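Researcher: Checking consistency across runs. Here is Ester cyclase again:
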Amino acid sequence: MSHGKPLIFLTFVTCTITADSRMRRILTDLQPVSSGSDKPMSNATLDANKALVLAHYDAVTNRHDPEAIRAQLAPDFFDHAVGKRMSADEVIAHSAAMHEAFANLSAVAESLVAERDLVAGRFVWRGRHRGSWRGIAPTGHHVEFRGMTFWRIQDGKISERWAEVDFAGLERQLKG
């Protein structure tokens, strides 16, 4: 009977180490890419950066607005969550796929912080599963999942993104 507790503890430690490793990778990647990124920014610029991120979530998730998405992304946008540069068309295709899989898809910022050229936020997504997603047939389930995202803003455009989204929790909701 006492053998079960150490296994649970080891599982917890493994998950914690994995999460810590992923966070260290994200924080390492967040180092400034240019000497200008460590300069303090005005409150107006920080507010504009936060507004851009909120507008981007609105365009990608709430409305699926391809023209707004194109206007918001830098031409060399790099998505660290997928490990590559992504064109606006690729981001638009991802948005379309999410809207096909989830009806009434929405994202709401639970918190948003801006410093230098970075904006960080905690978000909650909601929708109803109506189309295939990651091989899971439509269930009709209403879902809610959360994530944290960092964005780098350069010259008024989104140039980089780091994201950790609880897709495992979303899959559990769809399969449960």
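Researcher: Does this match what you'd expect to see?
Model: One thing to look at in this run: Confidence is low (pLDDT under 50) at residues 1-19, 32-36.
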